[in-house]
Amino acid sequence: MTDTTLSTGPASPDSLHTGDAAKARLRARYAAEARFKWLGAGAVALAGFFLLLLLSTIVTKALPAFHQNYVALEVDLSADKIDPADPGAANFLGLVHDGMAGEFPQVSGRQERRLLRGLVSTGAGVMLREAIEADPTMLGGTRRIAVPLDDFADLYLKGLLAKSGPSCRIAGVTVSGAGDEVAVGFPDDAILAMARGAGAVDGEDGGLRLTSGSQSLLLEIAGGTLKITELSTGEAGGAIGKATVLEPLASASDMPDDAMLRTIETAEANRKITDREIVWLDRLAGAGKIENRWNTLFFFTGASREPELAGIWGAVVGSALTMVVTLALSFPIGVAAAIYLEEFATKNRLTNLIEVNINNLAAVPSIVFGLLGLAVFLNWFSLPRSAPLVGGMVLALMTLPTIIIAARAALRAVPPSIREAALGIGASKVQTVFHHVLPLAMPGIMTGTIIGMAQALGETAPLLMIGMVAFIVDIPGGFTDAATVLPVQIFMWADFPEPAFQQKTSAAILILLGFLVIMNAIAVVLRKRFERRW
Amino acid sequence: MNMLTEAGVEQQLADQGNTPAIKMRGKGVTVHYGDKQALFGVDLDVPEKQVTALIGPSGCGKSTFLRCLNRMNDTIPICRVGGDITLDGEDIYDPKIDVVELRARVGMVFQKPNPFPKSIYENIAYGPRIHGLTKNKAELDAVVESSLRKAALWDEVKDRLQEPGTGLSGGQQQRLCIARAIAVSPEVILMDEPCSALDPIATAKVEELIDELRQNYTIVIVTHSMQQAARVSQRTAMFHLGYLVEEGATDKMFTNPDDKRTQDYITGRFG
Ligand SMILES: Nc1ncnc2c1ncn2[C@@H]1O[C@H](COP(=O)(O)OP(=O)(O)OP(=O)(O)O)[C@@H](O)[C@H]1O
Ligand SMILES: [Mg+2]
Prior knowledge:
The structure holds two protein chains of two kinds. Chain A is α+β, with helices and mostly antiparallel strands.
């Protein structure tokens, strides 16, 4: 035995820990440690990367929703439009539309007028009325009033609806004819290649036709705007074509003129805004009539079918009310249950059964709680539908197991010596628990509560069951008013077809995340407080 | 021989004044932890204003017996106590007895110092406050000071009463726990190996303190140190495997024990 050790082992007497084999073992250990360190760091980095990716996509998508474009219009508020004796009876939206028409006096024809009116939000009338109610001195003259643009107009101005292509200057363009269709002439045929690049198709007569499926070529000339519809080779190496008048020219003459050719790369068929509207909006923007404002509408109004009028405040208030109910129910009940089970209950079959069931409840899908709420709170207790009260109760049921489990773990983690110390000087059981054990367990209990509340805040499914998915315009004023909550609002907006709701969805997600951050911050502050008291 | 014995008895009487009254008395105390019996019919008297030391090998039931004296065993669900234990002739396991009051009269100091994670002041003030022993802040301050003085800790902490008790050294913490026990003016103080976590200097301080406390309190102390038992106690009880082997005056126990097991244990032959 000794012989073999000597013959196979290294030479030095303390070879067991210094020999080559030992060094190899040590190296292997260090290598394993290094591998683990790298794996850990890699995992953290990966998680961080995905978090960053998620946040950055949400933020970039949400940012446009935080601003809204307004158009400043000269609105006639004189006595013959609004009766000073009864201002409420006036047609405010009509006044706003008149102001809009005033900006574009040349626009005629029913369809065009309607298109123009559609650029301002349908909520503009209500806002004007409210502004006048707030400040009646506005009446009696023409005022410059900013009203929100319609969602598509707003999106276009934010660059989200149509992609503008390059523009170039062309000298010597002639325009002839009058009416809606005019003939245009170009000194060279470079325009033909451009039209081809823009997706023009060959017409029957050998020319090129620009349809709604191709890019739009807009020609700004002589104070007006034309849209090229047809092109063909002209004489002397030039090109001729036809164009629709989007904006009448100030001077229609045959004299050659400098023109600005703009392309809009998104084909008209593929966007929710027509060339005409684009031209109008650009005109307004060029005249400095568009104001990009911080979107107070989004932050301080309730839901709406009109994206530009839809706000998050109703859902925020609904969520806050719901969370208040949830916290007020689940925290005291959960902590009391945990204290009872952990400190007072004798361990027997019944308490074991309760314990197992509480643990199981924590794993029950949340929609089941929604069904329970529907069956018990709505159908049986006849509590109001869609109310934060009921939502809070359902979420409290869902949160209770989380809080109880966390609170029990926190109570169990308080060293028994503290209990013995208190009992040993004659503190009663209740005094021991409330003076010593509970305060020490509080940070842990609060962590569990915050986790539970965060879960509840992001919960959608159970609330759908009790009708909190209803479309509610009014901001809830109390616990029994119909309301919706942030995640449900996000869910609904994500489902709406209007493109402007996409940004709203992301913005609402950001606000939900902000809510969570605030809740966590409060928990951290409270926890610090509790820890410092000791 | 006869003379010597008489001189010894006289000496003892001189030490203790007259024959002390019995403060606590255990008769046929049995304890079960679940199915396992930990104490088998222990009869032990605790004389008033003396220090009684409980010695014996590990696991013999010293702590178990000590914890019976203020019903700390109640906190262990599987623990059942039988027999009679009286305090001033009253059965402490009588349902009429209020445990809270009992524990105020019979305080306890534990093996490991366990100050509350609160300020030094709060540690001491907690007991008097919950028992309503003081009427105002000034009285409470006085109780805190006198308790800390009795526990020989005042000079070390008087300038830092608001600092956390857990920030003291181990020996200071143990004296803080003793002060905390004293603050509720108990009649009996139970100490379970109070010096096992302390260095010799802190141990000496605590032993000195125990000797002084004897003037006013009845003390029962569990110790594994024979020297400590000999130094601080007037009476000693030897436990073995759940039985009380022998009890008597400390001098006699250490010089001339009746039972061979006591002799063996004291001389370090087992345990
Ligand atoms: N909470 C408990 N549950 C079950 N058995 C226990 C419990 N506490 C003590 N015992 C048992 O009771 C017996 C006596 O224990 P006890 O703590 O009284 O011994 P001790 O004399 O204080 O020992 P030590 O000197 O090591 O502290 C031991 O066999 C022990 O295992
Ligand atoms: Mg012990």
